[in-house]
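Saturday, quiet lab. Running sequence design on the structure tokens for the scaffold JK sent over.
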């Protein structure tokens, strides 16, 4: 079952609500997650435990509790992503399989643990796939995105927004 929502035209470009609504909700979720991870005690503790678990345990934080919260936040974000994808795609048992390789490329290209890098990498990959899909085909867009990923891993192996040591 697909949603039947309106579409708006601006300058010859159509903007369907089935894409604008998930986009807006995902931007709000992204900003909310960023604020949570950078401005709250639990977010700071999550980032600290990911860097040095033993030191955080010595400082009185419970790594098990922090892992529980991290799993809950990750599950919440994954559930939200799945719900937002239903605006555009039909749901079936193998629904997520097509997004696995692309998600892997975005996480690695953005730099593991770098949320802003993942956002930039997802934007870059989506633009490559979209432009190549218009010029050639969608399948060729994915091939070109994969080639760009491989080249970028040689140029910036730690991710596109990581600092050089």
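Result came back. Writing it out in full:
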């Amino acid at each position: 079952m697909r949603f039947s929502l309106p579409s708006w035209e601006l300058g010859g470009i159509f903007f369907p609500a089935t894409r604008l609504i998930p986009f807006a909700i995902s931007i709000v979720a992204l900003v909310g997650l960023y604020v949570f991870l950078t401005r709250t005690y639990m977010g700071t503790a999550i980032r600290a435990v990911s860097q040095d678990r033993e030191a955080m345990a010595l400082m009185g934080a419970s790594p098990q509790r922090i892992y529980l919260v991290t799993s809950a936040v990750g599950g919440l974000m994954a559930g939200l992503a799945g719900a937002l994808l239903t605006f555009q795609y039909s749901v079936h048992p193998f629904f997520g399989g097509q997004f696995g390789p692309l998600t892997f490329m975005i996480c690695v290209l953005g730099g593991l643990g770098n949320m802003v890098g993942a956002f930039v990498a997802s934007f870059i990959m989506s633009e490559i796939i979209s432009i190549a899909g218009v010029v050639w085909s969608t399948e060729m867009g994915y091939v070109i995105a994969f080639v760009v990923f491989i080249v970028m891993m040689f140029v910036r192996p730690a991710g596109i927004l990581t600092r050089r040591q």
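Notes for JK: The two ends are 51 Å apart (CA to CA). Residues 17-39 form the longest helix (23 residues). Ask whether to fix the surface positions before the next round.
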